[in-house]
Amino acid sequence: VIIWKQTSKSAPNIGAFEAFSHRISCLVATEVLRDDTEKIRARMISRLINAAEKCHKLSNFQSCRSILCGLQSPAVYRLHRTWGYVRKRHSTKYQVFECICRLYRDPRLS
Q: What Gene Ontology terms for biological process does this UniProt record contain (predicted)?
C-alpha cells in the first residue's frame, strides 16, 4: 500500500483498488464482531470462508485475499472460543487459504 500511495497521482485507480480491498477486509471483521454469541460468530466465519472459496474458484484472488485479511485481523483472530465452534471442514479450508496467502507474501517467490 505504501508503494502505491507515493504514485497515487500517476495511478489513481490502483490506490482506489487498494482502498476498496481494505474496506472489504474491514467489513468482514465488522460482520463477524457484530454478534455477541460465539456460535453465531462461528457461523458467520464459516460463511465468509465459503465466500472466499467461491472467489478463489472464480479466480477473483484479490477479493479472496481481502476476505482472508479480514478474518486474520487481530480482533477476529483472537476469538479463540469462536474459532473452536467453526466446523472442521471450514477450518481446514481456512488453513489452506492461509498457506496460499503466506506463499503470495513470500518475497523469495517474486
A: Ras protein signal transduction
Comparing CA positions, the residue from 98, 34, 35 lying closest to residue 65 is 98
Q: Is 103 exposed, middle or buried (0-12, 13-18, 19+ CB in 10 A)?
A: exposed
Round to whole Å and give the CA distance between 28 and 76: 9
Task: Map out the domains of the chain as residue ranges.
Answer: 2-109
Q: Mean pLDDT score of the chain, rounded to an integer?
A: 86
Class of domain 2-109: mainly alpha
Please indicate whether residue 108 or residue 34 has the higher confidence score (pLDDT).
Answer: 34
HSE-up of residue 17 (Cα within 13 Å, Cβ side): 8
**Cα dist from 4 to 44, 62, 73, whole Å:** 32, 16, 22
The grid coordinates of residue 51 equal 465466500
* Cβ 18 vs Cβ 59: under 8 Å: no
